[in-house]
Amino acid sequence: MYEDGPNPTKVQITPAYKRANPPPPLVLIHDGGGTTFGYFMLGNLYREVWAIHNPHFFDGGAFEGGMDEMARLYIQYMKDAGIKGNILLGGWSLGGFLSLAVARFLAEDPEATIKVLGIVMMDTPHHLPWSQVDGPTDDPVIENIPPAIQKCFERCDEMIEHWEVPRWDGPACDGKPVFFGVGGRRYSVPPGKVLYKPFEGAWSPVEVPRYDKPAEEASQSEKGSITPPPTVLIRAIQSMPLPEGRTEPYIIDKHRNDRTLGWSANAPEFIKAVIDVNSNHYEMFEKTNAAQIKDMTTQLNLALEILDSIGNSVNPSFGGKPKLDYF
After folding, report:
1. How far is residue 305's CA from residue 196's CA, in Å, rounded to a whole number?
2. Cβ(224)–Cβ(265) under 8 Å?
3. Is there a contact between 163 and 127 (Cβ–Cβ < 8 Å)?
4. 9-325 — its CATH code?
5. 280-307: burial string, b at 16+ Cβ within 10 Å, e else
6. Which pLDDT score, from 0 to 100, does residue 3 have?
């Protein structure tokens, strides 16, 4: 990522042994700071990986059309780079919101040349316009942030203050049980549950709150409905420390103890698996913590394995005929 450089930038290429039947490329979108540095630190993801940075990172400019303008521009960036067909989207924090927005615009476009098979959200909590939030909406003060990144954070806050997450007509995968493989096993996960992997723990099914569709949405026809791609959430389990005397969490930690970070109760069901990492939100890609970067690579590969198997886009990485676990 550099001024006047390509956008998106190709971060990884498909290994030679996978090129005869390549998995879908992964397109990662920047966080609120506008950068993609963290994605360049990741280990091998065994597929083509692209990274989109904020084009206003170097000039401090704003998107007058907000998040929707960004999403539409990033679709054009992908087209210009020759990205087409089936892809996976993902991003850390704001990148998760933008992934949902991009997926929504592509899903409603009958002439789209790109199809989003799945999304990996990296610690992206559910969002409401701040006027609808009960409690504080501030972020912690992070020391020694470069001015360009700080400006992007400020622009980000301006955009999401009134922004609403994309609306969908129904749940992912038509609200049916999903079958996928991960870690040498196969799973069937019904509606109302997600497959959950705690940090250093084993996979298990957990129930999540159910979304009650508003009456005006329920009355709409299901014909031609637009539904979200199945999504895997990588969740940080640590909250940011609070200053002395403060009891209310920062906005980024409002849903920290909810395994789906507030999504399951507030949107049609689309998160199919949740993977915990031992970090707070802001240190998931800490460049001085090699162990953290290695763990993020491991968990991201698990997330990709799940999405590949849901989409049936490539053969599962395990061999033989693994046990099928029904939950």
Report:
1. 15
2. no
3. yes
4. 3.40.50.1820
5. bbbbbbbeeeeebbebbeebbbbbbbbb
6. 86
The predicted structure's pLDDT at residue 2: 84
The tokens for 83 are 């990205």
d(CA 64, CA 62): 6
10-residue mean pLDDT profile of the chain (327 residues): values are: 92 96 97 97 98 97 97 99 98 98 98 98 97 93 94 96 96 93 91 96 92 66 78 98 95 97 95 98 96 98 96 42 45
The pLDDT value given to residue 32:
97
- Which of 253, 258, 116 has its CA nearest to residue 196? 258
Distances (CA, A) of 261 to 98, 104, 126, 161, 266: 17, 20, 6, 18, 10
Structure tokens belonging to residue 113:
């040349």
Compute the chain's Rg from CA coordinates. 19
Q: Distance (Å, rounded) from C-alpha 192 to C-alpha 209?
A: 7
Domain ranges of the chain: 9-325
Amino acid identity, position 306: I
Three-state secondary structure string covering the chain: CCCCCCCCEEEECCCHHHCCCCCCCEEEECCCCCCCHHHHHCCCCCCCEEEECCCCCCCCCCCCCHHHHHHHHHHHHHHHCCCCEEEEEEEECHHHHHHHHHHHHHHCCCCCCEEEEEEEEECCCCCCCHHHCCCCCCCCCCCCCCHHHHHHHHHHHHHHCCCCCCCCCCCHHHHCCEEEEECCEEEEECCCEEEEECCCCCCEEEECCCCCCCHHHHCCCCCCCCCCCCEEEEEECCCCCCCCCCCCCCHHHCCCCCCCCCCCCCCCCCEEEEEEECCCHHHCCCCCCHHHHHHHHHHHHHHHHHHHHHHCCCCCCCCCCCCEEEC
Integer Cα distance of 52 and 8 in angstroms: 4
Task: For residue 268, give both structure tokens.
Answer: 């049609």
pLDDT of residue 102: 99
Which tokens hold the place of 112? 């789209």
